[in-house]
Amino acid sequence: MLPVAGRGVDDVLAELALKRERDVDWASGRAFGMVYDGGPSVHEVAERTAMAFLHENALNTKAFPSLGSIQSEVVRWTAGLLHGSATTSGFLTSGGTESILCAVLAARERGRAERGITAPEMVVAESAHAAFHKAAHLFGITVRKTAVKPDWTADVDAMAAVLNANTVLVVGSAPQYPQGVVDPIPEIAALAGSVGANCHVDACMGGFVLPFAEMLGRDVPPWDFRVEGVTSISADVHKLGYAPKGVSVILHASAELRAYQTFVFDDWLGGFYASPSIQGTRPGAPMAMAWAVMRHLGVEGYLALTRTALETADRLRAAIGSIDGIRVVGGGAFHLVAMAGDPDANGGPIDVFALGDALQRRGWFHDRQTPPDSLHSTVSNGNAAVLDDYIEALTESVAEVRDTTAADRSTNYATLE
Under CATH, to which class is 27-35+299-400 assigned? Predict the structure, then answer.
């Protein structure tokens, strides 16, 4: 029960500090995911902005026009990076899941309004984010899930085989999370267009990497609004956009398409109610921090951070390839790296879940995923300074667990408690 007596500020903060003692030490670069570190100046601008906007509420931007301006500018800046047109429109959300929910809802509503669909379906590869399945559960949509090809990209032929008159959405990822590869977006968009469905590109992981990777001269397959038929894209500023949690951008190719995600109600004693996303009350601090970080970094800052992240990921892939017993899964070329046991190794494959346990005992945190059993790394700027230490720990851990099998086979992208 809530204690009857309160405690002083210092005592409360001391209690919280105790609760954090077992948290992953992301600030030292020892977590390959969850938090992405843009460096001291990014911390400073975000933290000072958070204090300035700690109590603001974007439920009503007439009361807080600053948040309306902030949202419009972040949406416009992101649309520019993703080669949107003058008609591209969007909103800020609390994160990638909410952006995906908005995209799925918009597809359902468009299918109902324009094509009279009452039993909507969507087509996703098995690599598509779990949030699409969550959206289907919430919004009453049937999911047609298809296998991926041997290179882990979506199989367009398999997707075409389950396409039908009830399809309201076809999904591609840029890149997909598990192995970090970019789906064939032009083919997926054409497939969606052939039945009048929406095509959503999930770039929650890549939206603030791929544009800058292309500017740096990396080979980036077509994936953004330059692809004909892409109707919406999600991109998380709180991932490799280096803003604190939680803020994402959902973009639609036009304001007309964006309108399908909004809820408007004008039959309430409280007055007119309009909700652009899933939330009602929306905290102003994450929105303002996203604006501040983007304004602070600019294109030049993002290019530097992206270069560091990509070069660090390249070094990590090379290190994994040089250690007998483990291998990189898939041909991802950007910041996502999946590591699995190598069946062709001289000493046989390493049990990567045992490897993950050994690394965690040394203070390094990875998500565990399956199938195949693998350890997942989202490499960012914050990992660069400690990568040599990590490679040393990885080498030691492989030797330690070479003949070991982990009893715990669970995976842990997200948890209930």
Answer: alpha beta
Q: Are 27 and 362 in contact (CB under 8 A)?
A: no
Using CB atoms within 10 A of its CB, is residue 389 exposed (0-12), middle (13-18) or buried (19+)? middle
Q: For residue 171, which of 136, 138, 139 has the smallest C-alpha distance?
A: 136
User: Is residue 192 over pLDDT 90?
Assistant: yes
Which residues of the chain are in CATH 3.40.640.10 domains? 44-296
| pLDDT tens digit sequence for 94-149 | 999 999 999 999 999 999 999 999 999 999 999 999 999 999 999 999 999 999 99
Note the pLDDT tens digit of each residue in 58-102. 988 889 999 999 999 999 999 999 999 999 999 999 999 999 999
> What are the backbone angles phi and psi of residue 97, rounded to the nearest 5°?
-60, -45
Cα–Cα distance measured from residue 368 to residue 360, given in angstroms and rounded to the nearest whole number: 12
CA separation for the pair 100, 257 (Å, rounded): 15
Q: How many Å apart are CA 359 and CA 94, to the nearest integer?
A: 31
C-alpha distance from residue 218 to each of 38, 69, 173, 213, 234 (Å) = 21, 33, 18, 5, 22
Where along the chain do the CATH 3.90.1150.10 domains lie? Answer: 27-35+299-400
Rounded Cα distance between 257 and 90, Å, is 10
User: If you compute the radius of gyration of the chain from its CA atoms, what whole number of angstroms results?
Assistant: 22
pLDDT tens across 309-339, in order?
A: 999 999 999 999 999 999 999 988 999 999 9
Closest CA to 199 of 237, 240, 154, 236: 154
CATH code linked to domain 44-296 = 3.40.640.10
